[in-house]
Design goal:
This protein has six helices and six strands; from the N terminus they run ββαββββααααα. The protein is α+β, with helices and mostly antiparallel strands. The two termini are about 35 Å apart.
């Protein structure tokens, strides 16, 4: 994509949690610094940047790509914790972090790093492959899934939902987030489900993100 669109946003680093444009992500906010972040966001543009740590340490290094989440639902509990719902708007690429005196991290980002316009539909054969492998993957995990409802999802919602909730490792989730096209993401999510399902012990994946 040509050009750039710089913006300054607060960052919420969370391993295993990715957000896509037009997708939603519910979060429970309990750490004091992120409670402050949510309060400040609600008093301003009501958006935060979801991004994954790329390693350990304090503060941890970050991957270079994340997604802006617009806060479309927020409930403050009596003890100061929050339940929020984020609606993905567009992916971004980090430009530089800024020390602005807050307990949470903030950064300048490029909002024009990806073309996040609404994609066209998948080829019918590719859509069928995603659904087929999702059924096999769900069966391997012993999940109770309403496959009729799954079949009603549009292509983008289906692929991105699998990418968000499947118990892939953070590196695999990051690769899905950074994949430029929906078709490429569909191919990758099928490969990841096949690999995890067929690998020794692959179905023993523990709990998924809620």
């Amino acid at each position: 994509m040509m050009g750039s669109k710089p913006a300054r946003i607060p960052l919420f680093p969370l391993a295993g949690a990715i957000l896509f444009p037009r997708a939603q992500l519910p979060l429970h906010i309990f750490e004091p610094r992120y409670r402050d972040m949510v309060r400040d966001a609600l008093a301003g543009q009501a958006r935060i940047g979801m991004i994954q740590p790329s390693g350990s340490g304090e503060p941890p290094p970050l991957f270079q790509t994340g997604c802006v989440g617009e806060i479309v639902g927020a409930e403050e509990l009596d003890d100061g914790r929050f339940n929020i719902v984020l609606q993905g708007s567009n992916r971004f690429r980090l430009i530089a972090e800024r020390d602005l005196g807050t307990d949470y991290r903030q950064a300048d980002v490029d909002l024009a790093a990806y073309d996040d316009s609404e994609p066209g539909p998948l080829a019918l054969i590719q859509r069928a492959e995603v659904e087929r492998e999702a059924r096999r993957f769900g069966d391997a995990l012993g999940l109770a899934v309403d496959w009729g409802a799954v079949g009603q999802l549009d292509d983008e919602m289906l692929v991105n939902a699998i990418a968000q909730v499947a118990p892939f490792d953070p590196g695999a989730k990051q690769a899905l987030l950074e994949e430029p096209t929906l078709s490429g993401r569909a191919d990758l999510v099928v490969q990841l489900m096949q690999f995890q399902r067929l690998a020794p012990g692959g179905a023993d994946v523990g709990q998924t993100l809620q």
